[in-house]
User: Which sequence fits this backbone?
């Protein structure tokens, strides 16, 4: 999850342009490595709508860097589970929609054989997963930006959640990747 120093994952109107100016090839490689550790992508409706328009075309665009094409191919090939109360179908290959029973579905997926589940964006979904304590690892891409307003990743919830820092990585751009696991 890309996040600003003041805790926002997007601007007030879902703007993400603030993180693009810090993005570099080294970061692209790392995000590809992280995705290769997973085999299922979890998305909310809004993020699904944006990504389903972007990634299929990206994989076919030969003018993009090779690692971006490999990432796009993974995004298109991996199963995607979309949690939405309103949308029931999409045309991005390997997508399945879940309307109800988030907790039951996540538990089933976590108990199934395979690699990690990964969430991209999808702030409402992430907050719901956090509320139900279904997140095992938090990987935060902390950008040297202060937005002052926007969509916060973390909101106050009763009951503290202890996390243990498991790794860090600092990029020349000033972005720091922090990985935490639940204690």
Assistant:
């Amino acid at each position: 999850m890309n996040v600003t120093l003041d805790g926002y994952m997007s601007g007030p109107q879902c703007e993400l342009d603030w993180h693009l100016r810090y993005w570099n090839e080294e970061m692209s490689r790392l995000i590809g490595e992280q995705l290769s550790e997973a085999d299922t992508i979890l998305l909310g409706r809004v993020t699904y709508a944006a990504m389903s328009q972007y990634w299929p075309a990206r994989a076919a665009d030969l003018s993009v860097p090779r690692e971006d094409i490999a990432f796009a191919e993974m995004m298109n090939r991996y199963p995607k589970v979309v949690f939405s109360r309103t949308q029931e179908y999409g045309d991005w290959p390997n997508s399945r929609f879940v309307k109800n029973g988030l907790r039951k579905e996540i538990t089933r997926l976590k108990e199934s054989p395979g690699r990690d589940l990964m969430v991209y964006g999808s702030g409402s979904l992430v907050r719901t997963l956090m509320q139900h304590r279904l997140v095992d690892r938090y990987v935060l891409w902390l950008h040297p930006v202060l937005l002052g307003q926007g969509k916060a990743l973390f909101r106050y919830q009763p009951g503290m959640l202890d996390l243990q820092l498991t790794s860090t990585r600092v990029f020349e751009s000033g972005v720091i990747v922090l990985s935490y696991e639940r204690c």
